[in-house]
Write a structure and sequence with these properties.
- It is built from 2 helices and 26 strands.
- It is mainly beta.
- It has a single domain, classed as Maltoporin, Chain A.
- It is globular and about 70 Å long.
Length: about 550
């Protein structure tokens, strides 16, 4: 009996010491010297009926991206998962609305606003408004002016059944002028702006239904439509309707099988009616491995009862983790040249038939390159070879029937394009960021001696510096583009002047909600002609206020 009491007392003292040792453990972070490897024995699977987690009713972060004169296209990799021991960054403040109002010289005005709200975990709404006016008429060029208006709304409703319904409506009105007559020897001056005015009014409507949460089948789906109606000043009209069904089946939570169907209809009417309808079937399987990813798919497109088969293949090998990856692929498609797409690229395209012709550009592309992250640098370099049928080139009418409406017509030609390009992003410090893209195209056309009005070299870069605890942001941008070729009346070619655009901008926050901005664009006053007879705007400045709340 005494032995039992003695053993009991010893065990009590030992347990107390262990508990005290655990209580006295330090509360700071612990560095793991050796990974723990655990092995679980086979167990019987216990069926569990899963339940959907509660909806997140927290306020959602709204991202406001203010369009600039030039867009930098830089691919940003997916965010990295932080180690458990690393302290997370503080979340930025969340704002529902953003406003920007400014005025500048030569005469210009900018006003834009965005609003977005996620309400009760059930629906979100968004509104946007933009008004941009510029009048750069000078002593040597008259009617060099424009006006852009855009108003839009969108919303999404999340139903308890696990799917969501979204819709959008957008209206835009873009007005500009055919000021190319200033280069005529006829000495035309004092022209009323209504005589050289053109505008495009466009309505966009769209709706779709998709899965708002993960479902039992692990399938993501979306089905809907996009519709637009465009009309210009001269009663030319174009309508477009795109119907689509997209589905992705995840296999094992890692690999995916995609199946997309679409029907894209376009009808253009001026003095005659033109139609351009494409039908798409796009299946693809993607394998995601630790060091190897591969996509094998096909793009089947039907147009005018003709079927075109295009590859949709890409492989990525991670050579040294995230530092270096090699990729290669092949793809193809029919790219529509509609009145809307042509005038978006060149607003001085003629609306008259038979000058305007809607066609598909057929292309096959084979490409390869490298990409990765090296400490503070994220990079990508790519080389591609593309064969094209019916590539849209742009030729100006040197002797128009009406010199007040000097316009361009699309000229289609077949050929080959060799592309060399890359992108770079460097977070030099926490407050200094450098981004840039560059691309060089070598055109080899079958009939035309040059790729009329298509640039060969394009370089865009920006340096962003954050100062005064992020209250002050300073940005420097450089845009470089070669002089594009154009066709002379005798069939020979010449080149327009090149672009070297240096711009500076700054934004300062007086308070958490109110700030001011100042932009100086085209410091070198480069008035190159992107389109023959149509020089771009020279030096211009803008000053204004910003608000977020």
């Amino acid at each position: 009996m005494k032995n039992i009491k003695l053993i009991t007392a010893c065990l009590t003292i030992f347990i107390s010491i262990q508990i005290q040792a655990q209580v006295d453990l330090p509360t700071e972070q612990v560095e793991v010297i050796k990974n723990f490897e655990a092995t679980l024995e086979e167990t019987e699977k216990v069926p569990i009926d899963p339940e959907l987690p509660p909806l997140d009713t927290s306020t959602q972060l709204q991202q406001y991206q203010i369009p600039q004169t030039h867009q930098l296209e830089v691919d940003y990799p997916a965010p990295k998962i932080r180690p458990l021991a690393m302290r997370p960054d503080a979340l930025p403040n969340i704002y529902d609305a953003y406003l920007k109002i400014g005025a500048g010289l030569p005469t210009s005005f900018l006003g834009e606003g965005y609003y977005g709200k996620f309400v009760d975990g059930k629906y979100d709404v968004g509104l946007n408004l933009k008004y941009h006016l510029g009048n750069f008429t000078g002593d040597d060029i008259e009617n060099q002016k424009f006006r852009n208006v855009n108003v839009g709304a969108n919303g999404t409703y999340y139903l308890d059944q696990g799917f969501a319904v979204a819709g959008k409506v957008d209206y835009s009105s873009d007005k500009f002028h055919y000021y190319g007559y200033n280069f005529d020897d006829s000495g035309l001056t004092g022209i009323d702006e209504n005589d050289v005015q053109q505008y495009f009014n466009t309505i966009d409507i769209g709706a779709n239904i998709f899965n708002g949460v993960e479902n039992v089948g692990d399938i993501n789906y979306s089905a809907g439509f996009d519709f637009y109606n465009l009309q210009d000043k001269f009663a030319s009209k174009e309508t477009g309707m795109n119907l689509y069904i997209d589905a992705t089946k995840w296999i094992g939570g890692t690999h995916s099988f995609d199946f997309n169907i679409a029907a894209d209809f376009t009808t253009y009417k001026d003095t005659v009616k033109q139609k351009l309808n494409n039908y798409y079937l796009q299946p693809a399987f993607t394998y995601h491995g630790d060091i190897f990813n591969a996509k094998i798919g096909m793009n089947l497109v039907a147009n005018n009862d003709e079927f075109q088969f295009f590859p949709d293949i890409e492989a990525i090998v991670n050579v040294t983790g995230s530092e270096l990856a090699i990729f290669a692929g092949a793809k193809g498609d029919l790219q529509k040249n509609t009145y809307r797409s042509l005038t978006d690229y060149n607003p001085f395209v003629s609306y008259r038939s038979p000058t305007l012709s809607l066609k598909n550009t057929k292309y096959f592309e084979y490409y390869g390159g490298i990409k990765g992250n090296i400490k503070i640098i994220e990079y990508q370099a790519k080389v591609g070879f593309r064969t094209v049928d019916s590539l849209a080139l742009f030729q100006v009418d040197d002797m128009p029937p009406d010199p007040l409406q000097r316009t361009f017509k699309p000229v289609y030609d077949n050929g080959n394009i060799l592309s060399i390009g890359g992108s770079l992003k460097a977070n030099i410090t926490k407050t200094i960021e450098l981004i840039g893209t560059a691309n060089y195209n070598i055109y080899d056309m079958d009939t035309e001696i040059k790729a009329w009005h298509l640039p060969a070299l394009e370089i865009n870069s920006a340096l962003i510096v954050k100062l005064l605890e992020d209250k002050l942001r300073v940005k420097t941008q450089v845009f470089v583009e070669n002089g594009v070729p154009y066709k002379l009346a005798d069939g020979t070619s010449d080149n327009l002047n090149s672009l070297f655009d240096l711009s500076l901008g700054a934004e300062y926050l007086f308070t958490e909600n109110i700030g001011a901005f100042f932009d100086v664009n085209n410091l070198l006053d480069n008035k190159r002609q992107r389109w023959r007879y149509y020089p771009t705007y020279g030096l211009n400045v803008m000053l204004g206020l910003t608000a977020r709340f």
